[in-house]
Amino acid sequence: MKAFLVALVVAIELTLVFAGCPTIISKNRWGGQQASQVQYTVKPLKYVIIHHTSTPTCADEDNCSRRLVNIQNYHMNQLDFDDIGYNFMIGGDGQIYEGAGWHKQGAHARGWNSKSLGIGFIGDFQTNLPSSKQLDAGKKFLECAVEKGEIEDTYKLIGARTVRPTDSPGTLLFREIQTWRGFTRNP
Ligand SMILES: *[C@@H]1O[C@H](CO)[C@@H](O)[C@H](O)[C@H]1NC(C)=O
């Protein structure tokens, strides 16, 4: 009985460690404003679209937060979006930051927003790769999204440049995601 309980506790802890999703820095914590309007999506989503923010990157939470406040202001004030355009952002510090969030439509790839999760890697990856921390965080986050049933387990992973006239997610990050689960050029 005791051995069984120990095994059970170990199994539960392993589940928590390995199946757990990374901590997500809430919009409130990074200093973002609430959306001015929300449109919902239905899970599981079939597509994931990878972007870069086309800004300098950031290596700690303070600087990533400042970067995101600027991006959100630009999206809401200049582009007239209802929120920061991405569903989630991945910092150079290896942390996940909440954008529009789960079950909500982002504004990141016209024509695709209602059926995709938009993930923005903070930085410009035309000639540099994201840090390994940042890449690992992105991959773990996608596994987590499958485990939570937020995206289909046969999800299709798309670089923004495949569906929109943009450089995003940058040539080097685009090359990198070609080795990731679900990648397609023909969504
Ligand atoms: C954060 O930004 C400040 C001001 O730009 C800079 O001096 C500092 O080195 C940055 N910290 C990190 C960890 O990148």
UniProtKB/TrEMBL annotation:
Residues 1-19 form the signal peptide. Keywords: Disulfide bond, Immunity, Innate immunity, Signal. GO terms for molecular function: N-acetylmuramoyl-L-alanine amidase activity; peptidoglycan binding; zinc ion binding. The keyword Disulfide bond applies. Belongs to the N-acetylmuramoyl-L-alanine amidase 2 family. The keyword Signal applies. Disulfide bonds join 21-144, 58-64. Peptidoglycan-recognition protein probably involved in innate immunity by binding to peptidoglycans (PGN) of bacteria and activating the prophenoloxidase (proPO) cascade immune response. Binds to 1,3-beta-D-glucan and PGN. It comes from Protaetia brevitarsis seulensis. This is Peptidoglycan-recognition protein. Pfam families: Amidase_2 (PF01510). Gene3D superfamilies: Peptidoglycan recognition protein-like (3.40.80.10). Residues 35-170 form the N-acetylmuramoyl-L-alanine amidase domain. Residues 22-164 form the Peptidoglycan recognition protein family domain.
